[in-house]
Design a protein that fits this description.
Shape of chain A: rod-shaped
Order of helices and strands of chain A: HEEEEHHHHEEEEEEEHHHHH
Number of helices of chain A: 10
Number of domains of chain A: 2
Number of domains of chain B: 2
Strand order of the largest sheet of chain B: 1-2
Strand content of chain A: 5-15%
CATH architecture of the largest domain in chain B: Up-down Bundle
CATH topology of the largest domain in chain B: f41 fragment of flagellin, N-terminal domain
Largest interface: A-B, 65 and 54 residues
Shape of chain B: rod-shaped
Distance between the termini of chain A: 27 Å
Helix content of chain A: 55-70%
Radius of gyration of chain B: 38 Å
Helix content of chain B: over 70%
Oligomer: heterodimer
Number of strands of chain B: 4
Distance between the termini of chain B: 28 Å
CATH class of the largest domain in chain B: Mainly Alpha
Strand order of the largest sheet of chain A: 5-6-7-8
Order of helices and strands of chain B: HHHEEEEHHH
């Protein structure tokens, strides 16, 4: 039969359980701003009832027991979050990188390369109309130098963007390795803490946060094993195994969007690293296309210009510097400039075949290159080829921007759902706090009543 | 749906940033008058703007070329008109010289007048445009092409001079037949002068009068050819003005904002921003702990 002290013990246990409830609400409130924190809840269970005989067999309830402290986490949403974050990070990084690449051309505007092309051909048209005019001759040289400078400048700016993206990719890989180390370390601590079947909620949160950050860098797949550890693959590469972390491959190929380790190739599909590789790829493709354009511009203008004679009867003059004859070091946009003679003096600009002051025939031919289809440029004109180049990268940047917006909206929904399950709400916690506070007060009151009953009994005995 | 406090504040921050961004965009559009300033913001419109502006610049260059051409053709026109006047005067002199009643002294005086016309003809054949080019010298445009020493000689050439007067199209601005015309006219005037000096009315009547008439017809032909070219250039210039207006409208449609709409959008963005701030301020004032004692 339950005794008086059983009741006191039961209420003492209740007080401890409610104190845990207050502590847990306090822990939640303290972590309201902690990234990746999942709110925790005390799970109360009734203590096993005491069976006793009092005319018949009966059960007397024995109060409350602290079952566990669990974290609110939806693992399906967590997995979805990782996937969507990877997609968003890829599109957002690529949009930002390609926007910088598109900005290299300064379009649309008076500083754009297209304007330099137009001014160059306009200068030749004006020179054709005034072949003996020194101002027209100077203008041809000025616009030639300007166009060469703009193409050269764009090439080096693209080089800078490719290098910047390469540095960012290397930093991303370093961060992937740091996170792999953190996840492996947390795996070990989780395994150690789980031996007694308890749930190390805060460690689990920290591990999930690290994996989520990793998903923003590269496509990951996470498989929890039966010891509680996470086995993590990044871009298909085993990054965190049971035995610890492995270094993510540091050799990457932007052209194919892959990383290579010991002859095995892994495709990077998501995360900031995928966006960075895309930026490098685009910048390098644009560079090689500018090289093709510059070579065709140089050859087309020079081949006409060389057939002419200037007014000092000098012939066979290149307008732009001739391209390199070294097959191992071919010319491109990066070394496009006026030829040495043109650099020396505008007098070497040639308007006609004969060199006569009224002969502007060659200037007209060069001005006509503006509309001449070029087989090496897939039948495009020189300005047309450039226009498609600049338009292509601007379209790609815009398209990635739209993809990032869509991915952001989708991610937002998932974050909202996950936060609804896991996030701390101040009002919720205040209500929990009040609930446990009142429960604590009630339990204390019961103890007080028990004490009064005991006092009454003792008083009765004294009489 | 349950909303966590951190998501709630993140959401407020995002809403404020979005409202601020819209306000900034609207303000930028109103102050610049442009819908965008980077190609990736609207790649299609940007391409339209680049192509439209390129074509406008090209047309502007051909208009500058037309000014050069008009100077060339205008100088030619002036020279031919004065040459024609001189030839008509020579024809009148020839009529008077062929008249049997004229005396030898009168014919000698008329011969002197022909000499004056010849001297002027040489000056006209060496006419220079404002740019300094000798308009009847072909490609040798910087050398005085006609010299009158023991007859008239020509040291220029008869090659055509072109300008790009319309995008992609060349127009000829010189009269390649003019040098032979001036040489021939000078010779005919010399013959007339000789026949007047030798007091030979019969030859003047039978040869010089038809020759002067023929020279006048040739000059009229050259003047007409030159006039057609001037008219063509004027037509091109008029067409360019219309085309430039069309292109300006096209570029404007692609890149310019509708000011009334942009100002309305700015007002809307201001109101939205204000409402966002007010709603966030109101929502963050309400917390359970404020009601608990």
């Amino acid at each position: 039969m339950p005794g008086y002290l059983d009741g006191v013990s039961m209420m003492a246990q209740a007080l401890r359980a409610f104190q845990r409830g207050i502590d847990t609400a306090g822990h939640n409130l303290a972590n309201v701003n902690t990234p990746g924190y999942s709110r925790q809840r005390v799970n109360l269970t009734t203590t096993e009832a005491m069976r006793f005989y009092e005319g018949d067999w009966r059960f007397q309830g024995q109060g409350v027991n602290l079952g566990s402290i669990s974290r609110a986490r939806d693992l399906v949403l967590e997995s979805r979050w990782r996937g969507q974050l990877g997609e968003f990070a890829r599109a957002d990084t690529a949009a930002s990188g390609l926007s910088r690449v598109a900005g290299v051309y300064g379009e649309p505007g008076s500083d754009g390369v297209s304007h330099a092309f137009e001014s160059f051909f306009d200068a030749w048209s004006g020179f054709g109309a005034n072949p003996s005019d020194q101002a027209a001759r100077l203008e041809v040289r000025r616009q030639g130098a300007n166009l060469a400078g703009r193409l050269r400048g764009a090439w080096f700016a693209l080089e800078g963007e490719a290098k910047q993206a390469t540095t960012e990719a290397q930093e991303t890989i370093a961060r992937i390795n740091t996170l792999a180390g953190q996840i492996a370390s947390l795996n070990a601590r989780v395994q150690a803490s789980s031996l007694d079947k308890s749930s190390p909620n805060d460690l689990l949160d920290q591990r999930d946060t690290a994996v989520r950050e990793l998903a923003g860098l590269v496509n990951v797949s996470v498989t929890p094993n039966d010891t509680g550890a996470y086995v993590v693959h990044a871009a298909g590469f085993l990054l965190v195994a049971d035995f610890g972390p492995r270094n993510f491959p540091s050799t990457f190929d932007a052209k194919t969007g892959t990383v290579t380790d010991g002859g095995v190739t892994y495709t990077v599909r998501q995360g900031a690293l995928a966006g960075q590789l895309q930026t490098i790829r685009t910048a390098q493709t644009q560079q090689s296309q500018l090289d093709v354009l510059a070579t065709e511009l140089r050859d087309a203008v020079n081949s006409v210009h060389r057939t002419g004679t200037n007014f000092k009867e000098v012939t066979n003059i290149d307008f732009f510097n001739p391209r390199s004859t070294d097959p191992l070091a071919p010319s491109g946009a990066f070394d496009l400039a006026l030829s040495g003679l043109l650099n020396e003096s505008a007098d070497y600009a040639v308007a006609g075949v004969s060199g006569k002051p009224g002969d502007g025939a060659l200037a007209h031919v060069i001005a006509g290159l503006r509309e001449a289809a070029n087989s090496a440029l897939n039948g495009r004109t020189l300005p047309g080829f450039y226009g498609e180049l600049a338009h292509g990268v601007a379209s790609d940047a815009s398209s990635y921007g739209q993809s990032a917006d869509i991915a952001s909206a989708v991610l937002d929904q998932t974050v909202q759902q996950a936060e609804a399950a896991s996030g701390v709400n101040l009002d919720d916690e205040m209500a929990q706090l009040v609930q446990y506070q009142r429960s604590f007060q009630a339990a204390a009151k019961v103890l007080s009543v028990m004490d009064e009953v005991a006092q009454d009994l003792i008083g009765m005995l004294r009489r | 749906m349950r909303v966590s406090t951190s998501y709630e504040f993140w959401s407020y921050r995002r809403d404020i940033e979005a409202a601020q961004g819209r306000l900034f965009d609207a303000q930028r559009q109103v102050s610049t008058g442009k819908r965008f300033d980077r190609a990736e913001e609207d790649p299609y419109a940007s391409r339209v703007v680049i192509r439209g502006n390129s074509l406008k610049e090209w047309i502007a260059q051909t208009d500058r070329n037309i000014r050069t051409a008009k100077d060339y053709l205008g100088t030619t026109e002036g020279a031919l008109t004065e040459t024609l006047d001189g030839l008509r005067r020579a024809y009148t002199i020839a009529v008077r010289g062929a008249n049997a009643s004229a005396t030898a002294n009168e014919r000698a005086s008329l011969a002197q007048e022909i000499g004056t016309i010849q001297a002027r003809l040489v000056e006209l054949a060496n006419s220079r445009a404002a740019g300094g080019q000798y308009v009847f010298a072909g490609h040798e445009s910087q050398k005085r092409p006609f010299q009158a020493i023991d007859g008239l000689t020509f040291s220029g050439d008869t090659l055509a001079v072109f300008v790009e007067a319309d995008p992609g199209n060349l127009s000829q601005v010189n009269l390649t037949g003019a040098p032979s015309f001036f040489l021939s006219v000078y010779d005919r005037l010399t013959q007339l002068k000789n026949h007047l000096g030798s007091n030979d009315p019969t030859t003047i009547g039978s040869e010089d009068l038809p020759a002067m008439d023929s020279a006048i017809q040739q000059a009229l032909g050259l003047q007409a050819e030159n006039g057609y070219r001037l008219q063509d250039l004027q037509r091109l210039q008029d067409r360019h003005a219309v085309r430039t207006d069309d292109l300006t409208a096209m570029v404007s449609d692609a890149e310019d904002v509708d000011v009334a709409e942009a100002v309305t959008q700015l007002r809307l963005a201001e109101s939205t921003y204000q409402a966002t701030l007010q709603s966030v301020a109101a929502a963050t004032r309400m917390r359970l702990m404020d009601f608990l004692r």
